[in-house]
Amino acid sequence: MNILVINCGSSSLKYQLIDMSKNEVLVKGIVERIGIDGSQIKYEKTGAEKKVFSKTINNHKEALKEMLDLILDEQYGAIKSLKEIDAVGHRIVHGGEKFSGSVIIDDEVIKALNDSIDLAPLHNPPNIMGIMACRELMPDVPMVGVFDTAFHQTMPPEAFIYGIPYEFYEKYKIRRYGFHGTSHKYVTSRAAELLGKKVDDVNLITCHLGNGSSVTAVKKGKSIDTSMGFTPLEGLIMGTRCGSIDPSIVSYLMDKESLNISEVMNILNKKSGVLGLSGISSDFRDIEDAAANGNIRASIALKAFTYGVKKYIGSYYAVLGTVDAIVFTAGVGENSDIVREMILDGLETLGIILDKEANRAGKKEREISTRDSKTRVFVIPTNEELMIASETAALVSK
After folding, report:
1. Does 79 reside within a domain?
2. How many whole angstroms separate alpha carbon 114 and alpha carbon 94?
3. N or C, where is the chain less crowded by C-beta within 10 Å?
4. Residue 152: phi, psi to the nearest 5?
């Protein structure tokens, strides 16, 4: 079974074609700058040289058509007919409370996605555009929606409710939703395999650390708490996002800087985090290099980020009671031994003992705790596309 995985942003379309019989990626790439000058298609067939094509691409439908043409191309392609694509799996950021799992996309689902736009105004519209483009160009191919929020729908009310009048939850569904759910679910499943346990038997703390970051408490294979909230702005300090702050800061800044709410929200989402603290970059590699060279602000940014992760790990220990493993994943979590070491330093009292040599040993999947560590620690590269493809294949097979 061949599954096409689609992840649409406002001006981009990421894609992978996966042969599920072998869990093998046939082609992958991204269409960038859709509707913007300088559009290009990055295309990579497994075992072949990566290609970059420059072409004017005005909308997501054109982007999808160009990508499909390449997949079918005699010279570059991986299949001969669209009939060889058995289903399309779409990454959808926000499903609200309506979706606690992946679903076959039909008109009712699309209506529900449109109804949820208020919850994710930057993300859901391009997700919907991608779905509509696929439906038009591939009308006979079944489509599945896989939601970033779905994994966290198992959180109990005491974890997802906010301390505001309950009527606002009832009227507007203001609550903690959590994000990166597809990634947290994938590494939960993989960690269970490495532990030699069933998914339903594992307690984990999963740390998805990248430009956007979140930590999740997993009890018996299910999310019971997570750091991101109503939007991806809450929780950890991130690349450009401020993370959790006193809400009164918003009105204070509006008054002191004569800003409107949109301007303040732009600062909190795009000019804060390690970028705002360091004044250098939102890329953690740049922050680490600058801190190593004595830049005080970069050092503060790095310490503030790792301190925040450490606090979440400690608090989730209290919530879970027992923890089988801590998992690091995503760009920073997988690749930065410095960040991992800073986070775990001082957590020996929780039974976590880092094997520093294993921690620094490359970028592959591995255990980085010592043999006498009561809590095991893993680096597990995330694979959201494979998770989306697996969920899609399972639904379509039914």
Report:
1. yes
2. 11
3. C
4. -90, 5
pLDDT digits (tens, 9 = 90+) for 168-190: 999 999 999 999 999 999 999 99
331 is in an annotated binding site: yes
Question: Which residues have a Cβ under 8 Å from the Cβ of 350 and sit 6 or more positions away?
Answer: 313, 314, 317, 323, 375
The answer to whether 66 is a known ligand-binding residue is no
**Closest residue by Cα to residue 245 from 232, 234, 257:** 234
332 annotated as a binding-site residue: yes
Residue type, 241: R
Question: Domain check: are 116 and 222 in the same one?
Answer: no
**44 appears as a binding residue in the annotation:** no
**Does a structural domain hold residue 156?**
no
- The DSSP string of 301-342 is HHHHHHHHHHHHHHHHHHHHS--SEEEEEHHHHHH-HHHHHH
The answer to whether the CB of 170 falls within 8 A of the CB of 100 is no
Same domain, 222 and 367: yes
Note whether 257 and 354 are same-domain residues. Answer: yes
Domain count, the chain: 2
pTM reported for the whole predicted model: 0.91
CA gap 313, 227 in Å, rounded = 10
Answer yes or no: is 285 a known binding residue: yes
| pLDDT tens track for 330-373 | 999 999 999 999 999 999 999 999 999 999 997 899 999 999 99
335 assigned binding-site residue: yes
Q: Would you please indicate which residues are annotated as catalytic (active-site) residues? A: 148
Contact at 8 Å (CB) between 236 and 243?
A: yes
Q: In which domain, by residue range, is 143 found?
A: 2-147
